[in-house]
Amino acid sequence: LGIAAAHVRISVRTLCRRVKAGTGLSAGDWLRRIKLHQAGEALRGSRRPVKSICDELGFGSEASLHRVFKATTGVTPAAYRQMSSAG
Description:
- This protein has 6 helices and no strands.
- The chain has 87 residues and is mostly helical.
């Protein structure tokens, strides 16, 4: 959140308030959704290793992305990539 707030030159608190007002989500949930969307795009758009995508998007580990991705989408990153390339 600190990096995102600094990027748009506002305080973390102001960012949190604005995100909540605009989306109804907490700033943490909002950023998590953005990162998961970016991960999905990267999985669909490239053959890069999942570890590389994790590092690029700032996930703590490949296991962390795997856990959050599966909890949100119902499939693992590898399964998501396979489904995306099958269509």
